[in-house]
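Recall the central idea of this unit: under ordinary conditions, the amino acid sequence of a chain determines the structure it adopts. In this exercise we apply that idea directly, starting from the sequence alone.
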Amino acid sequence: MRPRTKPRAKAATRTDPAAFPPRLRTRLHELGLTQAEFARRAGITRTAAWRYIHGKTVPTSAAVRARVARAVNRGVDWIDQ
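Accordingly, the structure predicted from this sequence is:
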């Protein structure tokens, strides 16, 4: 009989850097938000907003991810789709 092993924890879902920017741009367009307005609503700098919109980086901290999702009226899981 094999010894029991602990089940592995699921890896945290990570945002696909190529998939997030088009979804974000589409959502901003749907809401009629400018980059500056998105940054203000999300509580991030305009530079960070530009980097997310243009695919240079994706939000990684839980707090920023929550603020970005809330700024576009979506749940945090929307970021990881």
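The first helix runs from residue 20 to 31.
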